[in-house]
Design a protein that fits this description.
This protein is an all-alpha fold. The chain has 5 helices and no strands. The radius of gyration is 18 Å and the shape is flat. The relative contact order is 0.15. The mean pLDDT is about 80.
């Protein structure tokens, strides 16, 4: 497989863009939380970090948690491998949306 196939068919470009985008979202939310001191910014930052961890788990998980490792860890590890990314993605998205709503409401109350 040449480099072009690795980037385009292996979705490396989209994976990198997703991780960088989530990282920038997290940094922006942290900056907003520190500058404005709103609870919505803190919640948005926690949600963005949760999304970033879930994305990294999905990307790195198959390389670290091979079939042999999962067989040694047992059925609880297999269930956790399936459930953890979904839970992190759900809570992360909820945190970002709720944090954005909370910050917008806080800004309106300040005016």
């Amino acid at each position: 497989m040449n480099t072009f196939d690795l980037i385009m068919k292996g979705s490396l470009l989209l994976d990198v863009a997703g991780v960088v985008g989530l990282g920038l979202l997290g940094f922006a939310a942290i900056r907003l939380a520190r500058r404005e001191e709103s609870w919505g910014g803190n919640l948005m930052a926690a949600g963005a970090i949760s999304l970033l961890i879930a994305r990294l788990f999905v990307l790195i998980g198959p390389h670290v948690l091979t079939r042999e490792v999962l067989a040694n860890l047992g059925p609880a590890a297999i269930s956790a491998q399936l459930a953890v990314p979904a839970i992190l993605l759900s809570f992360g998205l909820a945190g970002v949306v709720w944090g954005l709503w909370g910050h917008a409401r806080w800004v309106q109350e300040e005016r």
